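Predict structure. Chain length: 576.
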Amino acid sequence: MVILLLASAFNSLTQRVFAELSDRGHRVAVELALGEESVREALRRHVPDLVVAPMLTTAIPDDVCAARPCLVVHPGPPGDRGPSALDRALQEGVERWGVTVLQAEAAWDAGPVWASASFTVPPGVGKSDLYRGEVADAALEAVSTAVERFAAGGFRPTPQPPDADGGHAVRPYLRQEERRIDWEREPTEAVLRKLRAADSRPGVRDAFLGGEWYLHGGHPEDRLHGRPGWVLATRHGAICRATVDGAVWIPELRPARRPGGPGTYRLPAVHALGERLPPVPELPAGLWPSGGRHTRRTWTDVWYAEEGAVGFLRFSFPGGAMSTDQCRRLLAGYTFARTRPTEVLVLGGARDFFSNGIHLGVIEAAPDPAAESWANILAMDALVEAVLTTTDRLVVAALGGNAAAGGAMLALAADEVWCRSGAVLNPHYRLMGLYGSEYWTYTLPRRVGAARAERLTRDALPVSAAAAERMGLVDRVLESGPGSFTADVTRLAAHLARSAGLRARIAQKKAARERDEAERPLREYRNAELERMRRTFQDPGAPYHALRRAFVTRERPVRTPEHLTARFTRHRVSEL
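Prediction complete.
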């Protein structure tokens, strides 16, 4: 079928729906909902059989709904209505939740149900992680069912179940008044529920240290105590604030926007506070054990553990972005891991993002963004080079979630790439106006061939895990849930470490690296890539600078990016 995806943004869920429906043979186009007339024009241009809205914050025009069947993905179970479905579910502490695909009607979220799917809400998971994990899995299940029912014909969607009063009450938008934290009265678990319900957007507004901030992310701390609301310590850019019965770690802050002022964006909390931060201790990670598992309730973004002959270097950076400091600390962890007597080293393996490459927010906030861009890409390159030159053990990149740009290339530096079935890869840089580095000109063609590497970086479209496996971009796709991926990776890595041919594989890997180095040294790939990147960073008129600023401040686009419709157009032309 011809399917038009209508979305307020080409976000992670929209990308996944796009990639997986394309995998199923549908011709899929995307239109950003930037106004009613743009939606009408998209309908005239693409003439779709079906319109699907994976993420929509505005209503579809009535005449569009009348012209074509329009299915909307709502992140709540049948009967739930309102714009803050997931936020309220997490803040209220629900244990089961769901996703509904309903037919768009004049009344918001009140249309009949085409399909739905439910899931267990795991404890301690924030909204953005849940959205890209369990919610996305349920949404794909429900969308796939709805599309199949539509294609087969004859299916009659069922009315929404009424609420207790017999109607369809809309639960209102969750405003900051309801999100506000009372540090003097609320226990840690209540504070964490509020933080997790707003971790990516909109954040929880709070006043402290002489400023107004939005708090992003929340993790428990089991040892520190102090006066409620006070900052007790820092660790790797995060701040720890006391509650009435404990403390919480908050990794990021966003300054409140002044009326008429420029847009603000999330930054590591210590970076955002600057000189406002009081003199508190910087705590070490303390998570470099010689063996066993980490069991404390605390926060760090990089940690290491061992099980037998397998080392696990795990990391989790908010939004998947890796600043210069984060890259260097991850490299320090990797360097430590290489000193351990293991046969297999697993990089990643936690929930949510693997990596999205350099940290555009920290770069934008730097006094000299060009210099910080350069420092960040050098730090990323050093990390990737360390992985590429590890020849005494096998390295596995375990992608529990999405990977993009330099983060995708970091994964490709490993000997094997294992990917959760729900992950989406974006192995390209073009949309940020960059040529790219991280040795991609060596690793990407090595895996998929020169022609496909050129298409992937030119077309700049998301790739599903299944498609990535078919083209050789990844080696293994794990049909794991977001919460079981780490355990599945641990089991498979232990099996790999016990395999009879492991030492022979390691020897072959070392010999192959030596042959490749003799043919063309890694430094030549690096220097050629960095020369292109240096020219871009140092050119004030390069599109990268405006694109970066628009990305971090969430500027509203004025049109749908051409690359989202060009693929559909090429397919139509080739079929004529």
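Summary: The radius of gyration is 24 Å.
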